[in-house]
Specification:
alpha+beta, 31 strands, globular, DNA-binding, Topo_IA_cen, DNA binding, topoisomerase, isomerase, DNA topoisomerase
Length: 857
DNA sequence: GCAAGGTC
């Protein structure tokens, strides 16, 4: 019997489609990667009985990157990234082992049906899947077709069956347009990012230049925020005048009227109108209009709308919101949260969905009323053909979801109920007056029926004082007429919700990537999120955007993405050649890059007035080994040491504290050592600022401190202070922290294992000799007579930390579980040496000869 | 260490 493999874009879709096509009778099992499932059932395919295997990938199988050697920032000129640097496809998520998984499932299959999402990305993934499985599938007989593409516009029985009965083939051009987009984004983004990062790196003391990124989506996103900032900065308040009139009738409280001319910008003109109006003490009613108006119920919920509301009303950032929504989805509380569609399909079970909510005390009353009176038809939205709108899938209580989970779920439920509720109806009453010959009016709203605002009370019509009952010709008495001076006010910073709207409008990012871009610009310190989730650009963000404005405004304008997309669409439609479009666009950006490169000084001028040069920042800490003058320690991120004499900057470990280490020097380069500490109770080790960036020995890498240094004789090196192999990790060595007394400890130089020992000893030293049983270096300990825990009042003892019975109770492992065989209390300790010969790496000091050899190269 | 796009 032949086998048909079917592949969807995500596990949840594979499941729903399999359920539809097998009429609920498939058997399911997990695939080898644990993430994807395989659903199997019997059926017919082009007239023959076959076995169906429905499975999925998890988004893209592959992602584009430069080949390895072009990822070295120090050796590659960013300009080479435009053409010279070759790219390759790598597995997008190596942990998922997707290619292997597809090959295991595809082996021996005769046909494949591609059920990837029906957009360009999906079309591209079709070919990624084919590249993986075609080599392992059965060979077709003759010219029989084996590859099919299902095109569906929604996940409903009818649509899925219609797609199955009318299979087409994957669209190569659409896939190619995505290949082109990937290559453009990669080459352009990385070239600009690397160049500007390296240019500004280490130049300014108070600038975090660890990464200054550029991208066709993130940069225009930042641009929007800075554009608003500029408007606020350049805003000049204008003074204007309005006439305030208060009138009353009988004993009713006075009404405040709005002036028909709204406002004037000339005081004298305003005064003239006031004088004119004041000639009358009567306000005559010209007309009374009453109009029934409606506030529309919301459209069904899609992703960007959910993100907007979550940010503006729930105070939850887009990235966080998506994390919560994904959790609610995987736990079965809501439908798939990434969708552009805000329209319910005709056969969507609205009533069933509503019924599930009938017992929740928060909205049971409204739900029951709707169920008995009948649901309103949801408004017509747009169907992007991806997924149904975001909808609650089952009832939940506050306790089972957690705080933010519940708040988001509650909103989704209320929004859903609102979509099937009536519009809110109210009466708008407007009374027009004339005082002398000037026109005034006042208006108010009264509720007719709340409709959907019953479940969304925050959108309800606010209760107002009732409008007076009157008719044309009535006369009110003027209580007060006065000229009021006011000022125009500047706009506020963009809110996240505003930004999402702008991005959507200009086609910057997608529903899935919008949160990522917003997150990026705030994580990288280009904007900060202020009260009310307003986005305020930082000095860095402002300088970057202004810098682009000065050199090449297109780099930051939102139109650039659209222009490139237009080119790409030509590939997708088969109207342009893939290679030609790619070359053409790369050429344009290559020229932009070179122009940017040549004029970077004009961006730097802006940097100079905003940030202080590195030489003027920081405080003197340790001496340079070359010029022997003090280097300055710059604490701001990324923390580093700068030698003004040599104009060199030396990087330091991040996330910790640095201080001078007793003015001791590195024997190799005479730089004064500094002591790095992770925190008050954390680990610490000395490091040489020069060796840290320039590893002195062949077996060392960048970023190593003295606790990993293989110097054969330096008293601070691993060779002198290393005690034994780590009890937890592979390859780590426990190194004595000579600064830790009287609470002595040794810490692993790879992982976070820490061993406390010999508290109150006044000296702890690593001896030359090794333990016969486990090869760890012996340790000599000196205690004060009064506080010695040693037997028989002894004050000195020397032995193996792991094996010596006297040391047993003086050693305590922290932050990790014990795995060192001879450290298990009462177990192998006395027998010793059980840990040997099991293929574990020997402790480093054994390699003293190798280290020596490297030293003398 | 970099982009943007899928998704877990």
């Amino acid at each position: 019997m032949k086998t048909v493999l079917m592949v969807a874009e995500k596990p949840s879709l594979a499941q729903s489609i399999a359920k539809i096509l097998s009429k609920g009778s498939c058997s399911s099992r997990k695939g080898l990667n644990g993430a994807c499932s395989v659903h199997e059932y019997m059926g017919t395919f082009s007239g023959q009985s076959v076995r169906f295997k429905m499975t999925s990938v998890c988004g893209h199988v592959m992602s584009l990157d430069f080949i390895g050697k072009y990822n070295n920032w120090d050796k590659v000129d960013p300009a080479e990234l435009f053409t010279k640097a070759p790219t390759e496809k790598k597995e997008a998520n190596p942990k998922l082992n997707m290619v292997k998984f597809l090959q295991v499932e595809g082996k021996g299959c005769d046909y494949v049906v591609l059920w990837l999402d029906c957009d360009k990305e999906g079309e591209n993934i079709c070919f990624e899947v084919l590249d993986a499985i075609e080599p392992v599938m059965n060979r077709p007989y003759g010219s029989e077709r084996t590859v099919y593409r299902a095109k569906f516009s929604s996940i409903t029985d009818t649509d899925i069956w219609a797609a199955m009965n009318k299979l087409g083939e994957p669209n190569r051009n659409e896939a190619l347009s995505v290949d082109a987009r990937q290559e453009l984004d990669l080459r352009i983004g990385c070239a600009f990012t690397r160049f500007q990062t390296k240019y500004f790196q280490g130049k300014y003391g108070n600038l975090d230049s660890s990464l200054i990124s550029f991208g066709p989506c993130q940069t225009p996103t930042l641009g929007f925020c800075v554009e608003r900032h500029d408007k606020i900065q350049s805003f000049k308040p204008e003074t204007y005048w309005v006439i305030q009139a208060k009138v009353f009738k009988g004993k009713e409280s006075p009404l405040t009227l709005d002036w028909d001319r709204v406002r004037v910008f000339d005081r004298e003109v305003g005064q003239m109108f006031v004088n004119m109006t004041k000639t009358s003490r009567e306000a005559k009613v010209e007309s009374v209009s009453k109009k029934e108006k409606a506030k529309q119920r919301p459209l069904a919920l899609n992703t960007v709308e959910m993100l907007r509301v979550a940010s503006s009303s729930l105070g939850m950032g887009p990235q966080h919101t998506m994390q919560i929504a994904e959790r609610l989805y995987t736990q079965g509380y809501i439908s798939y949260p990434r969708t552009e569609t805000n329209h319910y399909h005709d056969n969507f079970d609205l009533k069933g969905t509503l019924r599930q909510q009938a017992n929740n005390p928060f909205w049971a009353q409204e739900v029951k009323a709707l169920l008995s009176e009948g649901l309103n038809r949801p408004r017509k939205g747009s169907d992007a053909g991806d997924h149904p709108p975001i909808t609650p899938m089952r009832a939940a209580s506050e306790g089972e979801l957690g705080s933010d989970g519940w708040r988001l779920y509650e909103y989704i439920v209320r929004h859903f109920i609102a979509t099937v509720s009536q519009d809110c109806k109210y009466l708008q009453t407007t009374i027009s007056f004339t005082i002398a010959s000037e026109g005034f009016s006042c208006s108010g709203k009264t509720l007719i029926s709340p409709g959907f605002t019953e479940v969304m009370p925050w959108l309800g019509i606010p209760l107002e004082e009732a409008m007076p009952v009157c008719e044309r010709g009535d006369v009110f008495t003027v209580e007060e007429i006065k000229l009021v001076e006011r000022q125009t006010s500047p706009p506020d910073y963009l809110t996240e919700a505003d930004l999402i709207t702008l991005m959507e409008k200009h086609g910057i990012g997608t529903d899935a990537s919008i949160p990522v871009h917003i997150n990026n610009i705030s994580q990288r310190n280009y904007v900060t999120v202020e009260n009310g989730r307003k986005l305020k650009p930082t000095n860095l963000g402002i300088v970057l955007v202004h810098g682009y404005y000065k050199t090449d405004a297109e780099l930051v304008l939102p139109t650039i993405r659209g222009a490139v997309e237009k080119q790409l669409n030509l590939i997708a439609q088969g109207k342009a050649n893939y290679q030609q479009v790619l070359q053409h666009t790369l050429d344009i950006f290559k020229r932009k890059f070179h122009y940017f490169f040549d004029t970077i000084a004009s961006m730097d001028e802006l940097m100079e007035v905003t940030f202080s040069p590195i030489a003027a920042t920081g405080k003197p800490l340790s001496r340079c080994g070359k010029c022997h003058r003090f280097m300055k320690y710059i604490q701001a991120k990324p923390s580093r040491l700068h030698c003004a004499g040599c104009d060199e900057t030396y990087s330091l470990p991040q996330n910790g504290a640095i201080k001078l280490y007793k003015e001791l020097r590195c024997p190799l380069d005479e730089f004064e050592l500094v002591l790095w500490t992770s925190g008050s109770r954390g680990k610490s080790y000395p490091l040489c600022p020069y060796c840290f960036s320039n590893p002195p020995f062949r077996d060392m890498k960048k970023g190593m401190g003295c606790n990993e240094c293989t110097h054969p004789s330096c008293q601070h090196s691993l060779n002198s202070l290393g005690i034994g192999q780590c009890v937890e990790c592979e390859g780590g060595v426990l190194v004595l922290d000579p600064t830790s007394g009287p609470k002595w400890k040794m810490a692993c130089n790879r992982c976070n294992v820490m061993v406390h020992f010999f508290e109150h000893a006044h000296r702890v030293q690593v001896a030359q000799e090794s333990c016969e049983a486990c090869e760890a270096s012996l340790v000599a300990v000196d205690f004060n007579k009064t506080r010695s825990p040693l037997p028989d009042g002894e004050t000195q003892h020397s032995g193996c930390v792991f094996c010596d019975p006297v040391f047993q109770d003086l050693v305590e492992l922290k932050h990790a579980t014990m795995r060192h065989p001879s450290m298990t209390r009462g177990g192998g300790a006395r027998r010793g040496g059980r840990g040997r010969g099991r293929g574990r790496r020997e402790k480093k000091p054994k390699d003293k000869m190798a280290a020596l050899a490297a030293y003398f190269v």
